[in-house]
Design a protein that fits this description.
alpha/beta, 50% helix, two-stranded antiparallel sheet, 5-stranded parallel beta sheet, disordered N terminus, disordered C terminus
Length: 368
């Protein structure tokens, strides 16, 4: 396993790759250049890192592919990065696909038949894979073979196809949607947690080094504290703050520079952005704090239901500004205070739901 001593050699290479990616405007290449390459370079997630390191070390000592790995957690926490690290630690090639791209069993069969021995197959958003493909994947993961059906009707023939041993890495933001038989076939399951501010500070400083940006400790802390516990957001905010520092300041990211830049980009001290504040504003000012159904709330802020549910709502719930109740979404007292409003004495958050509340909200909360 690569040691920390190797970071000095890797970072200049990553920095050159990052400069080249930014010069071409390739956003995906920029993100790839910012990713750590080994488990030792990975910042945060100590429990998953230690557990996964043990799994990989044992597999290398046996000379066999490790058990299949399932990574779960919110977006932006490093599931794709960990898949790349697994392949790098095993010195194995990596093949990347996604659940929505595998809509037929034949799509999966084509991918599996092209794998080489020991290769790592990464399927992002694996819970969105079609059911026929899932059923084919059961046999592939367990027995390293699939049955390819040729023909239709009574004349159809199943041809067994042997697959070389490989390591499956699945990533999901909604592990509860995975069927039990598929989830049980993963030998290791790791859940990624949101990052603490000190961990995000280290990530911001590392990214600043790669971007060749001068940043103070206070500036790094300011960016990290507004990053919603997510490295992807921290890196994005740092790049925008860097732009502000270069154009409107002396090029150094200090605390006051970071604050001014993030104010311009509408990211407040708690990490709330325009959409978050629009949701809270609609909930408190238009609907009196709720309860209100998700679809109605989405229409009020001019966004799709899925955008509010998957982008804004998880962070607002985690910060304690919004609560999900059987009757709909409700603003907490903290949400009223965040908007500078007095908390009404008769807010819905303080009401006790009745025995029929589940029934009342069911259709509205589903978007009907």
């Amino acid at each position: 396993m690569t040691s920390y001593a190797d970071n000095g050699d890797r970072e200049p290479m990553a920095g050159r790759a990052l400069v080249a990616a930014e010069a071409t405007g390739d956003e995906s290449a920029v993100e790839a250049a910012l990713r750590p390459r080994t488990l030792n370079e990975l910042i945060g997630q100590p429990r998953v890192r230690d557990q996964l390191g043990l799994v990989l070390e044992a597999a290398r000592s046996r000379g066999r592919p490790p058990d299949h790995v399932l990574l779960s957690g919110p977006p932006g926490l490093g599931k794709t990065t960990l898949a790349m690290i697994i392949a790098a630690e095993l010195s194995a090639p990596l093949r990347i696909t996604s659940g929505p791209a595998i809509q037929h069993a034949g799509d999966l069969a084509a991918i599996l038949s092209g794998l080489s021995e020991g290769e790592v197959l990464f399927v992002d958003e694996i819970h969105r894979m079609s059911r026929p493909a899932e059923e084919m994947l059961y046999m592939a993961m367990e027995d390293f073979r699939v049955d390819v059906v040729v023909g239709k009707g009574p004349g159809a023939t199943a041809i067994p196809l042997e697959i070389p041993p490989f390591t499956m890495v699945g990533a999901t933001t909604r592990s509860g949607l995975l069927p039990g038989p598929l989830r049980d076939r993963f030998g290791f399951t790791g859940h990624l947690e949101y990052y603490e501010v000190p961990e995000l500070e280290l990530i911001v400083r590392r990214t600043a080094r790669l971007l060749e940006v001068s940043i103070t400790d206070e500036g790094a802390r300011e960016v990290a504290s507004r990053s919603r516990g997510t490295p992807r957001i921290a890196n994005r905010l740092l790049r925008r703050v860097r732009d502000y520092a270069q154009v409107r300041a002396d090029g150094v990211v200090r605390q006051d520079t970071a604050r001014a830049a993030l104010l311009l980009y509408e990211v407040d001290e708690d990490g709330l952005d325009r959409l978050d504040r629009a949701v809270l504003d609609a909930l408190c000012r238009r609907f009196g704090g709720g309860p209100v159904g998700l679809s109605t709330l989405a229409v009020a802020v001019g966004e799709e239901r899925e955008t509010v549910e998957e982008v804004a709502e998880p962070f607002l719930v985690r910060k304690g500004y919004l609560a999900r109740t059987p009757r709909g979404r409700v603003a907490t007292p903290a949400a009223w205070r965040q908007l500078g409003l007095a908390v009404p004495p008769d807010t819905a958050f303080g009401q006790t739901p009745s025995l029929f509340d589940d029934e009342l909200d069911t259709s509205e909360d589903r978007g009907n």
